[in-house]
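Help wanted!
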Amino acid sequence: MRIQLINPNTCQGMTDKIASSAVAVALPDSEIIARSPAHGPESIECAFDEAIAATALLDVIAEGEAQGVDAHIIACFGDPSIDAARELANAPVIGIAGAAFQMASLISHRFGVVTTMSRTLPAAHHLLERYGYAHLCSGVRATDIAVLSLEHIEHSVYQQLLRECHAAIEQDGAEAIVLGCAGMSDLATELSIELNVPVIDGVTAAVKLAESLNHLNLTTSKSGQYASPLSKKFIGRYAHFSR
Amino acid sequence: MRIQLINPNTCQGMTDKIASSAVAVALPDSEIIARSPAHGPESIECAFDEAIAATALLDVIAEGEAQGVDAHIIACFGDPSIDAARELANAPVIGIAGAAFQMASLISHRFGVVTTMSRTLPAAHHLLERYGYAHLCSGVRATDIAVLSLEHIEHSVYQQLLRECHAAIEQDGAEAIVLGCAGMSDLATELSIELNVPVIDGVTAAVKLAESLNHLNLTTSKSGQYASPLSKKFIGRYAHFSR
Amino acid sequence: MRIQLINPNTCQGMTDKIASSAVAVALPDSEIIARSPAHGPESIECAFDEAIAATALLDVIAEGEAQGVDAHIIACFGDPSIDAARELANAPVIGIAGAAFQMASLISHRFGVVTTMSRTLPAAHHLLERYGYAHLCSGVRATDIAVLSLEHIEHSVYQQLLRECHAAIEQDGAEAIVLGCAGMSDLATELSIELNVPVIDGVTAAVKLAESLNHLNLTTSKSGQYASPLSKKFIGRYAHFSR
Amino acid sequence: MRIQLINPNTCQGMTDKIASSAVAVALPDSEIIARSPAHGPESIECAFDEAIAATALLDVIAEGEAQGVDAHIIACFGDPSIDAARELANAPVIGIAGAAFQMASLISHRFGVVTTMSRTLPAAHHLLERYGYAHLCSGVRATDIAVLSLEHIEHSVYQQLLRECHAAIEQDGAEAIVLGCAGMSDLATELSIELNVPVIDGVTAAVKLAESLNHLNLTTSKSGQYASPLSKKFIGRYAHFSR
Amino acid sequence: MRIQLINPNTCQGMTDKIASSAVAVALPDSEIIARSPAHGPESIECAFDEAIAATALLDVIAEGEAQGVDAHIIACFGDPSIDAARELANAPVIGIAGAAFQMASLISHRFGVVTTMSRTLPAAHHLLERYGYAHLCSGVRATDIAVLSLEHIEHSVYQQLLRECHAAIEQDGAEAIVLGCAGMSDLATELSIELNVPVIDGVTAAVKLAESLNHLNLTTSKSGQYASPLSKKFIGRYAHFSR
Amino acid sequence: MRIQLINPNTCQGMTDKIASSAVAVALPDSEIIARSPAHGPESIECAFDEAIAATALLDVIAEGEAQGVDAHIIACFGDPSIDAARELANAPVIGIAGAAFQMASLISHRFGVVTTMSRTLPAAHHLLERYGYAHLCSGVRATDIAVLSLEHIEHSVYQQLLRECHAAIEQDGAEAIVLGCAGMSDLATELSIELNVPVIDGVTAAVKLAESLNHLNLTTSKSGQYASPLSKKFIGRYAHFSR
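Answered by r_m:
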């Protein structure tokens, strides 16, 4: 199967990193096609960034659909544009936050989330509510690490992350840790060994769910909320969406 | 004061209609500046339309800010992009759905919402949850009237709307009706007389709330969630947002 | 329009203070008629006080109705008797707690409430639940300032209030402050400057909402929950309510 | 022990009826002192009636306290003034709605409530939320029987009640029925036989809970929310509450 | 009446202790039949222990039913197997956690729970949700006292318990304390005197509720969720349940 | 990897059926070991059946652990004993209800559940709450098909099932269907074609999740709620659990 892995940020370093994480867990016959949009912010760290990125991401979804990919993964912890993407695509669309919550709930009673900037906390809480995992989350902690500094992680940044993971476990009662940014995907194994609890990265979790849906012959229901968008006129820089 | 009234759809007819509704209730010294974006769908009827419109709307917010308007109103019942707009703007930003719910809750124990397409129902329910009004809403009813057919309302369309309002009152126990589309703003008075319950239009409600905040010297808190977006690089068609 | 502003406490000093706050924000053609009941406690600081005050307040509502006022404001943060008042009155009835929550939710993601006695905390939480704002509130903090000491505010009392506001912002993450007592209405501007976040007073907020409803031609729905009370016999000191 | 059984309505017929129901289930050494207030509405059927009755009821609580009763029962399904009464009294105060919900939850998975006027439905729902039983209730049904017509129940009124009980069981899935008015207390046995499910009357349930608390040496905690009201000045017709 | 009081643990010391607590509050004509199962763990301290104990407990329910007891009490704070027991029995079945929550809610606005092992906290929270008392609970505190060490309580164990009760009152705002283990039933009086707030033990609370249901002629509804189990074949060590 | 697939019912026909469904979707190197307990009811259709089956199931978990399996699947829609099993096992434990809800939420906005007996409805609702999917479920419908009649499905039984699926889609707005019994696992494909919406079977969903966890190197967190049970004495028929 072919899985389109989308980094909604426009920084190439992040795209390369998540592609590598995804390939490491994919089945031999799963092809990972990693892409980032041609338009938008280099990193997503607030509602404004997310709103802009959300639109450009839909161009990538459309591109993947045109190529007939079998699944799309939105590899940004806010799962931006996921409803719009599910409307646009025939292939299933998986967000990495939702994927990580699902895996975490299978192996712990309460999981903690450790994420980047404090400003993204409301977005994380919103996702926990939306997907129904708020009562299974022991807390969301921000590290105030900038997303771009995760492209190449320095020692001090790693220590900062480690500190909040420890606090999640010892103060909040987290039994497992969900990493709250695609840019942390290469740290899951190392952190898990150091912390002695399961550490879940959403990128790899999403790859396995994409493969699972494929093997189960399940794809987005097009009756109801995720039916294709109605044909209509779009103007200006979105005229290509007119149908 | 100057109030920027934004129709996130790109259809001019709707913009003219809501401008006229807004002017009718505005105080003498409130100037209404009605605008619609230069890019995007002619109407918003699903999550895909909304995601595209949300971005273009932020250009209009930026334009209003540059001109120093005193408030922004997002005149689409989904209150699209409201968090991003509040980050971007210094002036307060009011969504018409939120405004209508507020007014409805002051004059009824349970209000009903009558909206356009069935597909927008989840968005309406999401807003009721987000703003905290779900328990005060007797139900949301779709008319399956297309947004564009509200530019010039035919008799049959009006009858369809009336029918769902009656059902909201008689079957669901609505004590007041919230109109679920900016395009219905010119119908509130007529419907209220016919139905004999208060009928609330969000466009006019938002104008009064904008004036109220102005008189109270209240504007968006820039400490916390609605702080200005971090400066960063945007590429492609959003390069103008780079700072 | 004529707005009846009711102080449900029987202390005249408080009535004078809130009248002055209300007049300061009212439109030129809004007449403020400030009243307090002829019966009841000099201040409301627990459920017992509130139950007693609630009844006497209804006499004032009836008086205002007889005079044909266009709106009633219940200027006590517990919004006492609001359902009963809405049944009794034809003019809309606005509580200052509800009004303050509405304004706060338009300009912040999370607001804090700073109130008087610790014992009133459950009442504040109940109102947040009732109106649907609990999830938008970062916390309610008591100052243990007695209501009557707000008639003429001493320096130490102001400092105590300021301390809890700071705690709400710094410890609870409040992005705006709602003042939890009508007796604090003259402090909003001063506190806002000192705290550098918006500070919302319910008395002035309610005045603007009363004017807004009036301009929108909206008044309490009399079909359903807020229909007029059934005619029946009352005995003893409430015989005047018999119809 | 001595149990003060308060009918907050001023109709003597109802007081006599509930006294008789209470005596029938009381232990031999439990003395039932049935009282109704000297002031207020002859029946409670909306928020306005309840607000007025709530105050007069506190006089009766005070009277019982002066006589040293061991428990108070508020025998009106809205449990009016219960928080204020718990503050005022040293003896425990039990409301019949709360008592009925407790018993119903011990013997069924989902219980239905059958009550009087449609307008009292929001009050019933509010109580279910307040006490935490909303998720255990299959629905609340109004019969639109006036409270006073329950003093002497005619055949047609009984049939109406029976019809809604059947609907609660067959349409809503109720496994037990809670009677939503003190005036129905003499019908529990007859209805239970006819319906073949348990039928719970709050008056008798409250008597047993009052005795239970007494045998367990439990009485209202006076630390915290139910501490005695602060001493203060009351004026006018409530001057007797000044301390 | 005859009340079967079941200790689901297999330790006889606990059975003797709760029998003595129950007898102390029972009416003269209430016979307490205390039993523990012939199979299972000596104490219940995690989900595994509870699952095993739950089954053996059903044998005891069956035994009591065969003898025609009038009520069953499950005297373990997790209220294990209560739904299954209600299906199996004709007599009502009362759990001590549910019973304690009911009594606590009658005499306090917020009660705290003080229990044994930290691992049982999720079970306590689950019960609070299930019965609807979560919003009335100020917090659940574990003492990490092993259940078996409650058979004969040493001074240091009592001090540990006292410490957490104080913390519940002073830090969490508990107005009353619910003891979270049947093995603490003999401490309620002593603790109540020392703490100066009501202390509720579920064993004695359940006895009074059992008597109350009996006097009210109320027993488990057998229509719906608690209907008798369908006849079917059981094999192996549960073959005796075949019908 | 080796996956122990447990049918908690004692009917061999069901075990064979689910083994065959599991094998059909398993990866080539996943070995499916299907087992049913040596003790307990031939089918699980109420809380009593489930309580009995829950215990015997733990023997099977212990057996699988002794053999070093890599995952356990509890193949009964109530996910019986899942917490106890997670404590007992080192390998992850997956319930088929939870697994089905996860897959359904990835491909639909609202899914419906179609299950067996009406009495199991509360158990299904409880699981939806526990896992956090209640708001994503359009409704649970019972077919009143006995579990054992699913071993060999007759035409009339299939029609009954089809009828409720249609009702879930057309009346409740389900966009996908979750099959509420392991015994329906062989019908998913056929029903999906007939209904034209995705149909999710929990047995196959659980197999894919078990493989996913394995590839991600994730297993149950043993710190916190799912730590191994404390060593203690068990008597009678559970003496083998003593440690």
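OP: Thanks! One thing I noticed: The interface with chain F takes residues 10, 37-43, 45-52, 54-56, 58, 81, 83-84, 86-88, 119, 122, 225, 227, 229-230, 232-238, 241 of chain E (CB under 8 Å).
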